[in-house]
Amino acid sequence: MPDLASARQPAAEFDAIIIGAGFGGLRALHETRRLGLSTALFDAGSDVGGTWYWNRYPGARTDSEAWAYCYSFSKELQDEWDWPERMPTWDQVQAYLAHVANKFDMRKDIRFGTTVESCIYDEAANRWDISTSDGQVYRCKYFISAVGWFAIACQPPFGGLERFKGEWYMSSKWPKQQVDFAGKRVGIVGSGSTAVQILPVVAKAAAHVTMFQRTPNYVLPGRNHPLDDVDRQSIKDNYDAIWQQVRRQVFAFPMETSALTFDDVDDAQRQQIFEAGWEAGGFRFLFETFADILTDKRTNAAAAEFVRAKIRSLVKDPATAELMCPKYPIALKRPPLGNFFYESFNRPNVRLVDVSEHPLLEATEKGLRTAVEEHELDIIIFAIGFDAVTGPLTHMDVRGRGGELIRDKWDAGPRTHLGIAVDGFPNMFIITGPQSPFSNVPPVVDAAVDWIGRIITKARAEGAEAIEVRPDAVDGWVQLMQELLDSTLLGAATELKSWFMGANIPGKAHAPLHYFGGAAGYFDELKASRDADFGEFVFEHARSTAPA
Predict the structure, then answer these.
(1) Within a domain: 20
(2) Rounded CA gap, 249 and 256, in Å?
(3) Cβ-contact 325, 354 below 8 angstroms
(4) Burial 131-169 (b: 16+ CB within 10 A, else e)
(5) pTM, to two decimals
(6) For residue range 46-76, what is the model confidence (pLDDT) as tens digits?
(7) For residues 387 and 147, is the Cβ–Cβ distance under 8 A?
(8) Residue 230 is assigned to a structural domain of this protein
């Protein structure tokens, strides 16, 4: 097919172009500038933040401790920034990223309000042509995608919204102006992490809230709390130890992973350990209790039943409590963190509607209808997830050698090496891409961008025009993804339509979207690649030479 992008005169040419102004994009911009590369960063929003720019819904906050949900590349940055809470809100995260952009004078290289429509590799010139929504084409040698996991939201799965007389909102594109819930009847479609955060906040103001649940979740207590000056100083004094802890923890959290297994203790001790993990809050229940929750069925069953017992004790109505008790192993779906989520169902103005047997069929003038009931609503909130991880790139026109679309290359599931490089797509790097770790994102970003900087440095030192991963390295990485998945209980997540298996999107291939070998294992993989002098890659000096 003709190369339409390169047929137009580029508006400008850069050494590197980055898409996305979240954690990955800003870190990549800092790195390319450190290397002396001319760089432009494009983002559709009007400010930095990435995911946290768009997902500004009520109650939105991280599920990682603030002091590890940040960059580690600058000691000065970490010493001068003060986090106000254990689990920061969306605006606190965005304020942090704005501070980073200002501190390192990044805004001069960021083009806000610019949507990238296509990224096309020009083989003759060995350059990428990046086309934007304003009709411009920009050319670069290195193309870095930092679009993240959650840029493509699932759309409402039924029609009729044009008839609805009230207001409706997508959690993923929440308006900047305040939404008034006072005295309103609100419906929340979804029961995952986003809905779990929204409901307690909206229930305080609304006349009535109905949550429509298809699949219940194991909601763990967030135990969020303010940080005072003593807390913040202690964190700063111990940052070296904190980052060491993060780099060896399986999900890159600032906590220790338990070495205990199910058979190391008796029933009474197990109960005490689970209680301590529950009270500690966050994901400590999964990682500081037993080492084999994700690999041993007995341990997993014990953890799952412990949480079900908590649900039954927290939700006063037995019928509602039972509807909220998951019947599948814990962690097959990503457990949300909640702050007074279960307790909210004890309020007289909150109702749970199970739509697993009678799904929502359509929107009506008055609200939402199932086969058995019409629910009258003033406001509908859709918190129904994303075409996650691969979606941000497969929904874009990204073409490599021979005009091959990345969506076609990934039709049967993602194919990368290290979650960063794709064969047939020279000089393209993905930050937090498919087959990178399912873990706390910022530490992985730091490690991946450091790796990208080093491989570009090698190419420039050798005068190489292009960097391309060997297909056999991609084959090996894809095989490793399946082996790592098979070593856990997570393979059954497909049956639950889990997003991290691609199973929440009709027609999407069911394949592991993440590296399930733990963040520490992934960091070791990056180090091994560096130590082998990037032997999995071809460094091309002749522009048209394909990898061996």
Answers:
(1) yes
(2) 6
(3) no
(4) bbeeeebbbbbbbbbbbbbbbbbbebeeeeeeebebebe
(5) 0.94
(6) 999 999 999 999 999 999 999 999 999 999 9
(7) no
(8) no
